[in-house]
Amino acid sequence: MPEINVRKEYGKYRIQRAREDLDAAHLLFDNGDYCIANNRAYYAMFHCMRAVLAFDGFDSSKHSGIIAEFRRRYIKERVFPVEISKMIGSAFLIRNASDYDDMFIADREETRTQIENAEFVYRELSEYVNHMTENMEE
């Protein structure tokens, strides 16, 4: 398991990446690029989960592994509300459709919902990351 300072740096870096993806999702949405906005909204959530899991020294090369471990450690244990799990699941499905389905047409209102959900996830998880960064013993 990486040392505490390394885990803190991973957490901070990944939460910063999440913010960048969220900002990009907003710009893409405003430009009418809904499929790509869905992608960035999902990746914002993904980077948030990886930021939180960094404090446990956990990472995975598979998205499903990150989601499963986050749910096991943080949703099942009620660290975060179950609605976050539902938001992540929805974002994962829509991101896959946006990226891989030839005839998928992203809906403006659904994309808006995905971005709002990503903002909620970001607020909740970045608060946790900030708390952990400030309070982890070195």
Note the topology:
Elements: H1 4-30, H2 34-54, H3 63-75, H4 82-100, H5 108-135
Helix pairs in contact: 1-2, 1-5, 2-3, 2-4, 2-5, 4-5
Key attributes of the depicted protein:
138 residues, mainly alpha, 5 helices, 78% helix, globular
Explain what this protein looks like in three dimensions.
- The chain is 78% helix and 0% strand.
- It contains 5 helices and no strands.
- It has helices at residues 4-30, 34-54, 63-75, 82-100, 108-135.
- The protein is globular and about 50 Å long.
- The model has no long low-confidence stretch (mean pLDDT 95).
Tally of strands: 0
Q: What is the H/E order?
A: HHHHH
Mean residue pLDDT: 95
Beta-strand portion reads: under 5%
Biggest β-sheet, characterized? none
Round the Cα radius of gyration to an integer and report it: 15 Å
Instruction: Report the principal-axis shape.
Output: globular
Detail the poorly predicted runs.
none
Q: Short description, anyone?
A:
With 138 residues, this protein is mainly alpha-helical.
